[in-house]
Amino acid sequence: MPIPEDGGAVSSALPAAEPSGGANQTRVRAYNERLVLSLVRRHGSQSKAEITRRTGLSAQTVSVIMRSLEKDGLLRRGAPVRGRVGQPSTPLHLNPDAVFSFGLKIGRRSADLVLMDFVGHIRKHRRRTYPFPLPRDIIAFLQSALSEISAELTPAERGRIAGLGIAAPFELWNWAEQVGAPRGTMDAWRSFDLQAEVAALVPYPVHLQNDATSACGAELVFGAGPAYPDFIYFFVGSFIGGGIVLNSALFVGRTGMAGSVGSLPVRNRNGETRQLLEIASIFVLEDMLRADNIDPQPLWYSADEWIDFGAPLERWIQETAAALAQAILSAASIIDFSAAIIDGGFPAWVRQRLVAATIAAVGRMDLQGIPMPELREGTVGAQARAIGGASLPIFARYLIDQNVLFKAVEAADAE
Fold first, then answer.
1. Residue pair 81/49 in contact by the 8 Å Cβ criterion
2. Is there a shared CATH topology between the 25-95 domain and the 224-379 domain?
3. Which site among 31, 217, 290, 353 is 20 to 30 Å from 75 CA-CA?
4. Can you tell me the mean pLDDT for 253-276?
5. pLDDT digits (tens, 9 = 90+) for 51-98
6. Which DSSP letter does residue 52 get?
7. Cα-to-chain-centroid distance, residue 111
């Protein structure tokens, strides 16, 4: 696990404990190290005394673990904090430069590759747009972007890469008609093993997760998630998707499809029942712009640099908000979510307008007997899917299950 003095590769990962295995000394120490790192990540910084209180471990054990993690370069000391009595408390933080990870987001109109550091900040970013995604084009983009970014890193930085996480829609061949792909073109994805093909290109572990689930995971860990033990999450991309968090952990369900909010039935402005994705997706705005003879290409150049398209954009926001309000009401009638979080592949000013319109739409509905969740903006932003993908190798290698972490924190805080 240690980072050598020359800044080279991490020599060994924190091993994951096999649930069916015995709790030998190595497994226990690995678990405790992951627990400490997870608590420091959740709170931003922790002193040895705070870790001792939250974990229930002895002060001596915590001192040994934190000294080891600091020596290995995963933690670094902050400035001592002096209290009224006793020795000053020294907080320890995650070292952003300790670990890096690649995140590949595959969308219906664009792909992004990011290099993320240990605290969730994007260090490098490459993007490619296309009319529709094809396997060979994605692989070509990945190879080119990896080569470019790697060339900008030092050997020491390249040695600290934990892996590559892919955030991609499942069954990419579906909805080919909506993205304008010629009939049968997207069928190439049916027999394409994306994870295996990427793993053959890179010398480190490769992880794969649904793109909307990845975005939800990014919000859970790096965004507003810590404030809400249960929430439903909507990410408005080319096609809207989402996720569900229960007891402070992602809930994917029996088949991994829980949180597929795009399939929720809602009514359009004509009173016709449609799936949410047929109303509240960016491809719908794209069609609206074309209908008004407005070039929609700026939608895909950069998610953070949209122009104000005027009346079509406002019409799309209002219709999307009305559909989201119905979806949130349906979800809240089944599970008592504490929040409904809305984010998407657009600038913050669009997100702000959309959330405000959704709150207004909810206010016009009959809410009798339904405890409505707090409606709020997501905080991770347009790159949530890529960040969520990049998180996968780091979480798999260095952190514990969020459900275990939050339960430990809640128990300690209740004392």
1. no
2. no
3. 217
4. 92
5. 999 989 999 999 999 999 999 999 999 888 876 555 668 899 999 999
6. H
7. 15
Position of tokens 């430069």? 97
CB atoms near residue 88 (< 10 Å) = 10
Quick one: fold of 25-95?
Arc Repressor Mutant, subunit A (1.10.10)
Question: CA 192, CA 169: separation in Å to the nearest integer?
Answer: 13
CA 160 – CA 206 distance, rounded (Å): 15
Q: What is the pTM of this model?
A: 0.86
Any idea where the domains of the chain sit in the sequence? Answer: 25-95, 100-211+386-396, 224-379
Long-range contacts of 381-384 (CB under 8 A, 24+ apart): 381/304, 381/343, 381/348, 382/303, 382/304, 382/344, 382/345, 382/346, 382/347, 383/105, 383/112, 383/114, 383/122, 383/125, 383/303, 384/214, 384/215, 384/218, 384/219, 384/223, 384/235, 384/343
- Element housing 274 (H / E): strand 273-275
- Give the up-direction half-sphere exposure of residue 228: CA atoms within 13 A in the CB hemisphere: 27
- Residue 378, classified by CB atoms within 10 Å of its CB into exposed (0-12), middle (13-18) or buried (19+), is buried
* CATH 3.40.50.720 is held by the domain 224-379: no
Indicate the CATH number of 100-211+386-396 among 3.30.420.140, 3.30.420.40, 3.40.190.80, 3.40.50.620. Answer: 3.30.420.40
Is-contact 161 204, C-beta < 8 A? yes
